[in-house]
Design a protein that fits this description.
Layout (H helix, E strand, L loop, with lengths): L2 E5 L2 E4 L4 E8 L7 E7 L6 E7 L4 E3 L7 E5 L5 E6 L8 E8 L13 H5 L6 E2 L3 E6 L1
Length: 134
Amino acid sequence: QVQLAASGGGSVQAGGSLRLSCVASLYTYTFGCLAWFRQAPGREREGVASIDSGRFTSYGDAAKGRFTISKDNAGSTLVLQMNNLKPEESGMYYCAHDPGCLDAGQMLVTGWAAASQSRPDVHWGQGTHVTVSS
Protein backbone atom coordinates (compact mmCIF):
# COMPACT_ATOMS: atom_id res chain seq x y z
CA GLN A 1 0.00 0.00 0.00
CA VAL A 2 1.28 3.44 -0.97
CA GLN A 3 2.19 5.62 1.96
CA LEU A 4 3.22 9.24 2.22
CA ALA A 5 5.12 10.14 5.36
CA ALA A 6 5.16 13.82 6.29
CA SER A 7 7.61 15.23 8.80
CA GLY A 8 9.34 18.43 9.85
CA GLY A 9 6.58 20.13 11.78
CA GLY A 10 7.20 21.78 15.10
CA SER A 11 6.85 24.97 17.11
CA VAL A 12 8.42 28.25 16.05
CA GLN A 13 7.95 31.89 16.82
CA ALA A 14 6.47 34.27 14.29
CA GLY A 15 9.07 35.08 11.67
CA GLY A 16 10.75 31.70 12.03
CA SER A 17 11.22 28.96 9.45
CA LEU A 18 10.37 25.30 9.08
CA ARG A 19 11.15 22.72 6.40
CA LEU A 20 8.53 20.05 5.82
CA SER A 21 9.27 16.81 4.00
CA CYS A 22 7.01 14.18 2.50
CA VAL A 23 8.51 10.84 1.51
CA ALA A 24 6.71 8.28 -0.63
CA SER A 25 7.10 4.58 -0.08
CA LEU A 26 6.61 2.00 -2.82
CA TYR A 27 6.57 4.49 -5.67
CA THR A 28 7.97 7.77 -7.00
CA TYR A 29 6.28 10.97 -7.99
CA THR A 30 6.84 10.43 -11.72
CA PHE A 31 3.42 11.56 -12.88
CA GLY A 32 0.85 13.99 -11.69
CA CYS A 33 1.09 16.75 -9.12
CA LEU A 34 2.08 17.05 -5.49
CA ALA A 35 0.83 19.58 -3.01
CA TRP A 36 0.87 20.70 0.60
CA PHE A 37 -2.31 21.56 2.42
CA ARG A 38 -2.98 23.16 5.77
CA GLN A 39 -5.91 22.50 8.05
CA ALA A 40 -6.58 24.61 11.12
CA PRO A 41 -9.03 23.43 13.81
CA GLY A 42 -12.59 23.86 12.63
CA ARG A 43 -11.60 24.88 9.14
CA GLU A 44 -11.47 23.18 5.78
CA ARG A 45 -8.23 21.86 4.39
CA GLU A 46 -6.74 24.51 2.10
CA GLY A 47 -4.01 24.32 -0.51
CA VAL A 48 -0.69 25.97 0.28
CA ALA A 49 1.61 25.07 -2.63
CA SER A 50 1.81 22.55 -5.44
CA ILE A 51 4.23 21.27 -8.07
CA ASP A 52 3.58 19.28 -11.23
CA SER A 53 5.61 16.69 -13.13
CA GLY A 54 7.31 19.44 -15.11
CA ARG A 55 8.36 21.12 -11.84
CA PHE A 56 6.07 24.07 -12.46
CA THR A 57 4.83 25.42 -9.14
CA SER A 58 1.76 27.18 -7.86
CA TYR A 59 1.19 28.90 -4.51
CA GLY A 60 -1.69 30.16 -2.46
CA ASP A 61 -1.71 33.94 -2.16
CA ALA A 62 -0.44 33.94 1.43
CA ALA A 63 2.48 31.63 0.62
CA LYS A 64 3.86 33.55 -2.33
CA GLY A 65 7.31 34.96 -1.70
CA ARG A 66 7.78 33.12 1.60
CA PHE A 67 7.27 29.41 0.87
CA THR A 68 9.07 27.22 -1.66
CA ILE A 69 7.89 23.82 -2.81
CA SER A 70 10.30 21.40 -4.46
CA LYS A 71 10.90 17.72 -5.09
CA ASP A 72 14.12 15.77 -5.40
CA ASN A 73 15.44 14.32 -8.66
CA ALA A 74 14.65 10.80 -7.55
CA GLY A 75 11.03 11.78 -7.33
CA SER A 76 10.42 10.37 -3.89
CA THR A 77 10.69 13.39 -1.58
CA LEU A 78 8.58 16.52 -1.57
CA VAL A 79 9.76 19.52 0.42
CA LEU A 80 8.09 22.72 1.60
CA GLN A 81 10.42 25.42 2.89
CA MET A 82 8.44 27.92 4.94
CA ASN A 83 10.01 31.23 5.92
CA ASN A 84 8.72 34.20 7.90
CA LEU A 85 5.90 32.12 9.35
CA LYS A 86 2.81 33.79 10.80
CA PRO A 87 0.62 32.63 13.71
CA GLU A 88 -2.38 32.17 11.40
CA GLU A 89 -0.37 29.54 9.51
CA SER A 90 -0.51 27.14 12.43
CA GLY A 91 -2.26 23.85 11.80
CA MET A 92 -1.81 20.36 10.47
CA TYR A 93 0.06 20.19 7.19
CA TYR A 94 -0.67 17.36 4.78
CA CYS A 95 1.01 16.29 1.57
CA ALA A 96 -0.97 14.77 -1.27
CA HIS A 97 -0.31 13.22 -4.65
CA ASP A 98 -2.74 13.29 -7.58
CA PRO A 99 -1.37 11.07 -10.33
CA GLY A 100 -3.90 12.36 -12.85
CA CYS A 101 -3.15 16.04 -12.37
CA LEU A 102 -1.58 17.89 -15.31
CA ASP A 103 -1.26 21.43 -13.95
CA ALA A 104 0.13 22.52 -10.58
CA GLY A 105 -2.75 24.91 -9.98
CA GLN A 106 -5.40 22.19 -10.13
CA MET A 107 -4.82 20.92 -6.61
CA LEU A 108 -5.07 24.40 -5.09
CA VAL A 109 -8.56 25.05 -6.40
CA THR A 110 -11.03 25.64 -3.57
CA GLY A 111 -12.83 22.42 -2.76
CA TRP A 112 -10.27 20.11 -4.35
CA ALA A 113 -9.21 18.59 -1.03
CA ALA A 114 -12.77 17.70 -0.03
CA ALA A 115 -13.58 16.31 -3.46
CA SER A 116 -10.43 14.19 -3.46
CA GLN A 117 -11.67 12.14 -0.52
CA SER A 118 -13.82 10.12 -2.93
CA ARG A 119 -10.92 9.39 -5.26
CA PRO A 120 -8.97 6.21 -4.52
CA ASP A 121 -6.14 7.30 -6.84
CA VAL A 122 -5.29 10.34 -4.70
CA HIS A 123 -2.89 9.66 -1.85
CA TRP A 124 -2.63 11.68 1.36
CA GLY A 125 0.09 11.73 3.99
CA GLN A 126 -0.73 11.51 7.68
CA GLY A 127 0.09 15.15 8.44
CA THR A 128 2.64 17.02 10.50
CA HIS A 129 1.71 19.74 12.97
CA VAL A 130 2.98 23.30 12.85
CA THR A 131 2.56 25.83 15.63
CA VAL A 132 3.58 29.43 15.13
CA SER A 133 3.49 31.56 18.25
CA SER A 134 3.26 35.32 18.30
